[in-house]
């Protein structure tokens, strides 16, 4: 297989990155790959691929250096919400000094060709400028989380939704790189509920802390608690719990996935805990709710 056509996920599994914990999803007509990865400090070279690789920092504030061609660039602190865009068909050398967690989306050659043929003929030229700096754009980050969520199921409707989210992510990324979308960090102290829900959904099997939500929202943790309660009537903790319960009822209605599997996937302690929470939320047991 030619190096420029190697899928990024294949490289990741066979490189030094393979030692780092990760969760993977893939699907859709465009064969989109997505991973949530926990990386330690490292120096590595990502090879040229025909895919556009987008990385959204989920946790950890770490300095980073990267090089495409002969030019080194750097950022003092890659914060939660920062977005990196690796170029298509070019190698990327990375040096990161601290632990961090990323959501990585690899957008296939097919998705980019579809965009180029039907909408933006010079999209590759625009996208390949994205590596020049790290970006902060809540809409693009939200779209990346939406792709991860859409890839959680592999049925036909979910695949259709994943393809639509991929196209939306590409459009948002183009706008971000071209400077057509403003820095969307809130300056009015309000919380972007949609972005936070996408983030929680993408990490629902993990423990999502107030610090994590604060990093995504651009607010300090104490300010987040105050403004979240004032804006929504809920605490951030109650919000995470409500998102988990919505996902639980969605899973029950979507098919015949075993209850133990749903409980594990959505971060409940065990099936008994899952059943208690569903009954508390809906008034009936999971099996009766599904029926």
Explain what this protein looks like in three dimensions:
The structure is a single chain. With 291 residues, this protein is α+β, with helices and mostly antiparallel strands. The protein has two domains: 3-177, Sandwich (Jelly Rolls), CATH 2.60.120.10; 193-290, Homeodomain-like (Arc Repressor Mutant, subunit A), CATH 1.10.10.60. The protein is built from twelve helices and ten strands. The strands form two sheets. It has a six-stranded antiparallel sheet with strand order 1-2-9-4-7-10. It has a four-stranded antiparallel sheet with strand order 3-8-5-6, with no helix packed on it. The protein is globular. The relative contact order is 0.11.
Topology (SSEs and partners):
Blueprint: H1 8-14, E1 22-27, E2 32-39, E3 42-46, E4 52-59, E5 62-68, E6 71-78, E7 82-86, E8 92-96, E9 100-107, H2 109-118, H3 123-127, E10 135-136, H4 138-150, H5 156-177, H6 193-202, H7 210-217, H8 221-232, H9 236-254, H10 259-265, H11 271-282, H12 286-290
Antiparallel strand pairs: 1-2, 2-9, 3-8, 4-7, 4-9, 5-6, 5-8, 7-10
What labels would you give this structure?
single chain; 291 residues; alpha+beta; Jelly Rolls; six-stranded antiparallel beta sheet; globular
């Amino acid at each position: 297989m030619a190096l420029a056509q190697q899928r990024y996920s294949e490289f990741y599994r066979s490189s030094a990155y393979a030692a780092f914990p990760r969760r993977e999803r893939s699907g859709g007509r465009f064969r989109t790959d997505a991973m949530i990865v926990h990386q330690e400090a490292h120096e590595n070279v990502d090879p040229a691929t025909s895919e556009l690789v987008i990385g959204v920092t989920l946790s950890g504030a770490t300095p980073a250096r990267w090089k495409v061609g002969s030019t080194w660039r750097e950022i003092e602190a890659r914060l939660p919400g920062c977005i990196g865009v690796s170029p298509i068909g070019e190698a990327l050398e990375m040096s990161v000094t601290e632990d961090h967690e990323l959501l990585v989306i690899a957008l296939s050659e097919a998705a980019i060709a579809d965009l180029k043929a039907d909408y933006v003929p010079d999209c590759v030229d625009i996208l390949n400028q994205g590596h020049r700096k790290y970006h902060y754009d809540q809409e693009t980050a939200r779209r990346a989380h939406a792709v991860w969520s859409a890839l959680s199921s592999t049925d036909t409707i979910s695949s259709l939704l994943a393809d639509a989210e991929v196209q939306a992510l590409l459009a948002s990324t183009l706008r971000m790189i071209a400077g057509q979308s403003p820095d969307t960090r809130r300056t009015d102290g309000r919380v972007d509920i949609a972005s936070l829900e996408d983030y929680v959904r993408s990490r629902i099997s993990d423990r999502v802390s107030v610090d994590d939500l604060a990093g995504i929202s651009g607010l300090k943790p104490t300010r987040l608690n105050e403004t979240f309660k004032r804006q929504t009537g809920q605490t951030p903790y109650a919000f995470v719990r409500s998102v988990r319960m919505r996902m639980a009822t969605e899973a029950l209605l979507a098919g015949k996935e075993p209850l133990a599997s749903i409980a594990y996937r959505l971060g409940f302690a065990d099936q008994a805990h899952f059943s208690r929470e569903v009954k508390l939320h809906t008034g009936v047991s999971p099996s009766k709710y599904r029926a």
